[in-house]
């Protein structure tokens, strides 16, 4: 009888230890997303300034500018993390189109305000790329724990599910095409 008690006790202790590991990994995923979210918000705040500078030089690309601002005007704070990632993918593509369009306007590229905003945007994009790597690494570690035996048994019992990695959408994988 005492052997059964020891086995049950060991199983409970193992479950508690694994639960703590899941909590730690889940918190790392949350931290990684929060870090990425800071940079996404920073870029979010840059967009109106960039669009305004481009508008001064270009009235012909109205559709592109409106698309960027339409995406920007959605309420960022009230979005779920999944929605933030989806909108972010669309904004990435729209910004790439916008930057490609600016190639047609040398006077715009020479504008100091545009240069500063472009430089700041480039830095933010680099920060976003690095934070995506960190986020995906944290998700990979967490998902491995959820899916690998024997911790997968604890994950099922305690309701831990895999998390979605950040992935580039099909638009981001393709080159931006701009009609001249």
Give a concise summary:
With 180 residues, the protein is mainly alpha-helical. The chain has helices spanning 2-57, 62-72, 81-102, 106-110, 112-147, 151-158, 170-173.
What does this protein structure show overall?
There is one protein chain. This protein is mainly alpha-helical and about 180 residues long. It has a single domain (about 1-175), classed as Up-down Bundle (de novo design (two linked rop proteins)), CATH 1.20.1440.20. About 80% of the residues lie in helices and about 0% in strands. It has 7 helices and no strands. The chain has helices at about 1-55, 60-70, 80-100, 105-110, 110-145, 150-160, 170-175. Helix 1 packs antiparallel against helix 2, helix 1 packs antiparallel against helix 5 and helix 2 (about 60-70) runs antiparallel to helix 3. The longest helix has about 55 residues, at about 1-55. The radius of gyration is 23 Å and the shape is rod-shaped. The model is unreliable at about 175-180 (pLDDT under 50).
* Oligomer status: single chain
State the helical fraction.
over 70%
What's the overall average pLDDT, rounded?
83
H and E string: HHHHHHH
Structural category is mainly alpha
What fraction strand?
Answer: under 5%
Question: How does the major sheet shape up?
Answer: none
CATH homologous group name: LemA-like domain
H/I helix tally = 7
**What's the CATH architecture?**
Up-down Bundle
Low-confidence stretches: 173-180
Any idea what the shape is? Answer: rod-shaped
CATH top level is: Mainly Alpha
Q: Whole-number radius of gyration?
A: 23 Å
Number of distinct beta strands: 0
């Amino acid at each position: 009888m005492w052997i059964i008690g020891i086995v049950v006790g060991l199983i409970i202790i193992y479950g508690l230890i694994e639960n703590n590991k899941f909590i730690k990994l889940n918190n790392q995923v949350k931290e990684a997303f929060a870090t990425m979210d800071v940079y996404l918000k920073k870029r979010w705040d840059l967009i109106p300034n960039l669009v305004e500078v481009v508008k001064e030089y270009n009235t012909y690309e109205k559709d592109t500018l409106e698309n960027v601002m339409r995406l920007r005007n959605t309420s960022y704070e009230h979005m779920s993390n999944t929605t933030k990632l989806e909108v972010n993918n669309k904004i990435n593509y729209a910004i790439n189109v916008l930057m490609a369009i600016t190639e047609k306007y040398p006077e715009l590229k020479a504008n100091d305000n545009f240069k500063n905003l472009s430089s700041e945007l480039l830095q933010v994009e680099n920060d976003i790329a690095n934070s995506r790597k960190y986020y995906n690494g944290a998700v990979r570690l967490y998902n491995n724990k959820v899916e690998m035996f024997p911790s997968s048994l604890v994950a099922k019992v305690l309701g831990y599910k895999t998390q979605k990695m950040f992935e580039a959408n099909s638009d981001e994988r393709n080159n931006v095409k701009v009609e001249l």
